[in-house]
Structures are given as C-alpha cells and as structure tokens.
Specification:
The structure holds two protein chains of two kinds. By secondary structure, chain A is mainly alpha-helical. Helix content of chain A is about 85%, strand content about 0%. Chain B starts with a strand and ends with a helix. The relative contact order of chain B is 0.18. The chains are: A mainly alpha, B alpha/beta. Bound molecules: adenosine-5'-diphosphate and magnesium ion (MG).
C-alpha cells in the first residue's frame, strides 16, 4: 500500500504521458466547442419550434428532442459513425462524427433550455411589442430573445461541461481525444493507475474553472 | 374612431364578454369602470387583438379588425396601449424603449427616432432619464415612460388598462397629469380606471361594465351622481 503511494510522487508517467493528455485535450476542446456551438444553433431552432402553435412543427421538434434525450450518447455515436455512414455510403471521419453527435445531442438538451428561457420571459413583454405593431419575429428578436438568452447562460454553461465529458465516449469510434489517447497509452505501458489519475485531472483542469466562471456569471446575472 | 358591435369573447367555456356595443368618437375620452373580473381588460385587449375576438365586430379608424385581410401590425401601430404593469423592456435604456417601435415598425432612422423619443420623454417630464434603465425608475416614472413609448408611434387612439393601479398612491398624480395633458391635446382615449376623480374630470363619457356587458353609460356627472342601474349604484356606493 505505502509502496504504491510513493509511485504517486515519482511515477515516470507524469512526464511520459503528458504529451498525450495535451494532444488529446486539444481535440476534446475542439470537438466540444464546435459541437456545442452547432448544438446551440440546432437547439435554438428546435427550441423555438417547440413553442410553435403549429402542431406539425411542434411535433417534429418534440420527436427530435425526445429521441435524442431518450437514447444514450454512446449509442448515438455508434449509430452515426458505423450505422448511418455505412447506410448512406458517407464516410465520416471520427472528428466529424464526434462533432455531429455532440451537436445533435447537446442540441436536444439546448432546445429545452431555449424553450424554458423563452417561456420564462413575462408574457407582457411580448404583448408590449406586439401592441406597438411589431411582428412576432421582431418581438422575439429585439425583446424576448435578449432577455431569454441571459437566463439561458447558466444552463448553457452546464451543458457545455456535460458535453465536454461526453466526448470521452468517442474513444469507441477511435476519436483521438483525451480518453482515447490515455487508454492507448495505458494499453502499451500496462500500468493504469497514474495515467488515469492524470486523465481525471485533464478533465478537471477544464471543468472546475468553467464551473467557477459559471457561478460568477450566475451571481452577476442575478442582480 | 372605434365602433364595437356585439362583441363576444370566451376563454374556452368561460364567457367573458357577452355582447358589447360601444362607440368612441374622435378626440373623445371614454373611461371604463366596473368591478374586478367584469371583463374590462379583456374588452380593451380585444380592441387591438391582443385577444382573439370570438364573435362580433370591432372597427378602428375605418378598418375592421376581424377582416382577414387587415394588416393587424399596421393597425396596432396606430393604437397605443398602456398596461397596468408597464411592461417596459428591462434590457434597454429608456430612450431605446421609446425609440424601438418607431425604428422597427415605422422604419424611422435611429438618429431621428432618438431625437423624437427624447422629445416624448421631455413631454412626460423624464427628459433626464433617457440613459437610465427601467429597473432604476419608480413606478410612476416607469408608467410615464410607457406612455411616451406608446405616444412615440403617433397613435390615433390610446388604450389605458388601469395605468395607476400598480402605483404607490403618491405617484399616481404624476401619471394622471400626463394623461390629462394628453386628453386636453385632443387624444382619443379609452381608459380603464379606478380613479373616479379622473373619470369625472376628464371623461367625456363613462362606461360601467359588469359581468361582461355594459350595464350603463353616460356623462360622468349623470353616471356618478345619478346612476340608473342598481348594479352601478351598488358599485359606486362601495367606492365611497
Ligand atoms: N387568458 C385568460 N384565460 C382564461 N380566463 C381569462 C383570461 N383572461 C381573463 N380571463 C377571465 O375573464 C374574466 C375577466 O377578466 P378581465 O378582463 O381581466 O377583468 P377586469 O379587467 O375587469 O378585472 C375573469 O373572470 C378572468 O378570470
Ligand atoms: Mg383588468
């Protein structure tokens, strides 16, 4: 036990595995940022569709949202990368597939964030806009959306953190992000303890500051 | 200016308006009074289609609201509305609140719109608040901004839904002053109010509503001093 503990301080992995963490982290971040950004666009569209009085538009959005929230992201990645690409004869790279899965998956959750944000804006705001003669689009754009977006920031930040952690499952489609690279490193060295501790810290170094920033922003928006 | 014929409004099974007939002439100030829940707000909101009309007709400035071809946004831009809870846009400065409608609806250029907005703010006595945000204003100031915002659209009619009911008593006067000035300038106004003093002084006509119908209407001095309907009598006696 205590022998093992000394390993914690003198392991050669710290220097050997660090380049893999660093390299994987870059891909993790790229896939997360690009994916969540596209997910925000998708989520905004489907979130607004969820608010539509038109039953078909509402229905389409509901099916999309529930289908993606109701299946594991791992299954979505397998389905898209192996299933769909095979079916339509389109060979996604692992990065493309990873970004697409994050976008579609986060998009479904963000759609609900958007719907909640827009619904939280007092109906009187819409009425004030409409009663001046603004169209519903103008009212949304200039009056409701800016207020809704402010309230969406904390849950969007949360979704970012969730999606960031979700990228670790892309090891199954051989996307060379942090988890994948460390698994490879471990399988070549045969020594998992310290490398996986490093992997944990690789995520924490992004998520913890994100949460701290988020909490600060939340507090500022509250005032 | 406004003609209402046999207006009905239901929310599902609940019949809120049950056949309203009313006329408002140009430059007339009509005050609507009545117990809470009698349908005053719903009536006012039907006048600019914030509520869909169940049956009947509303004509404003020669245009039928119920006509499927009517450009409802254009019509609304000529009908100013002031709400009980102000409904100012909290994320914009006072000046932006007032200039937004003219810019986006009437296509007025920003500079021009802001100049006119500033003038409107002077008019309601808040010229120095242009750069402030609504959150920093008192209720009375908020409501005066809301009036300026509606006026900036150059409306032909102004609708007020209990504009002073959410205000501390000491702030009511300022808002009523602004409304009186407006009435004196010849603005056509429909005012739902509990301010009987205002109705008596400024109203050309007072309408008493109860349970979704107009029970009685007439000149303020007649309706207040010599009400014919027994519901009107009961309502007025409770106020004294
Ligand atoms: N959106 C709505 N849905 C259902 N019922 C409503 C709605 N708006 C108003 N009502 C009902 O209509 C009645 C009249 O309301 P309202 O016009 O606000 O009265 P007033 O302004 O005279 O107090 C009330 O009984 C109220 O509950
Ligand atoms: Mg009311």
């Amino acid at each position: 036990m205590f022998d093992n503990l000394t390993v914690l301080f003198s392991s050669p992995h710290y220097t050997n595995a660090l380049p893999f963490i660093w390299q994987g982290m870059q891909l993790t971040l790229i896939v997360t940022f690009v994916g969540v950004f596209i997910g925000f666009v998708i989520g905004s569209i489907f979130g607004l569709m969820r608010l539509s009085k038109n039953k078909i538009i509402y229905g389409i959005a509901t099916v999309y949202i529930e289908a993606l929230r109701g299946t594991p992201i791992l299954v979505q990645a397998l389905f898209l990368y192996f299933g769909v690409s095979e079916f339509i004869g389109l060979n996604f790279t692992a990065i493309q597939a990873g970004i697409l899965v994050i976008a579609l998956n986060a998009g479904a959750y963000i759609a609900e964030i958007v719907r909640g944000g827009v619904e939280s804006v007092d109906k009187g705001q819409t009425e004030a806009g409409r009663s001046m003669g603004m169209t519903s689009t103008q009212t949304m754009r200039y009056i409701v959306w800016p207020q809704a977006f402010k309230r969406m920031i904390p849950p969007l930040g949360n979704q970012f953190i969730i999606s960031l952690k979700d990228t670790s499952i892309f090891a199954v489609i051989s996307l060379g992000e942090m988890t994948y690279l460390m698994r490879q490193y471990v399988s070549t060295t045969g020594d998992p303890f310290v490398p996986y501790i490093m992997l944990c810290f690789g995520y924490l170094i992004i998520t913890v500051p994100s949460m701290i920033i988020l909490r600060r922003v939340e507090r500022r928006l509250d005032v | 200016m406004i003609t209402v014929k046999d207006l009905h409004k239901s929310f599902g099974e609940t019949k809120v308006l049950q056949g309203i007939d009313a006329e408002v002439a140009e430059k007339e100030v009509v005050c609507v009074i009545g117990p809470s829940g009698s349908g005053k707000s719903t009536f006012l909101r039907c006048l600019n289609m914030l509520e869909e009309i169940t049956a009947g007709e509303v004509e404003i400035d020669g245009e039928k609201l119920t006509d499927p071809n009517v450009d409802i946004n254009k019509l609304r831009s000529r009908v100013g509305m002031v709400f009980q809870h102000f409904n100012l846009f909290p994320h914009m400065t006072v000046l932006d609140n007032v200039s937004l409608g003219p810019r986006k609806v009437n296509g007025v250029e920003r500079k021009q719109a802001e100049k006119e907005a500033q003038e409107m703010l002077e008019k309601v006595g808040l010229g120095d608040k242009a750069k402030a945000y609504p959150g920093s204003l008192s209720g009375g100031q908020k409501q005066r901004v809301a009036i300026a915002r509606a006026l900036a659209m150059n409306p032909k009619v102004m609708l007020f839904d209990e504009p002073t009911s959410a205000l501390d008593p000491e702030l009511v006067g300022d808002v009523l002053e602004v409304m009186k000035d407006l009435a004196k300038e010849g603005m056509t106004m429909v005012v739902v109010t509990h301010e009987m003093g205002f109705a008596r002084e400024m109203g050309d006509r007072v309408i008493f509503m109860d349970k979704g119908v107009i029970m009685e209407e007439g000149k303020p001095e007649d309706l207040f001093d010599n009400p014919q309907n027994e519901r009107t009598q009961a309502f007025l006696s409770k106020l004294l």
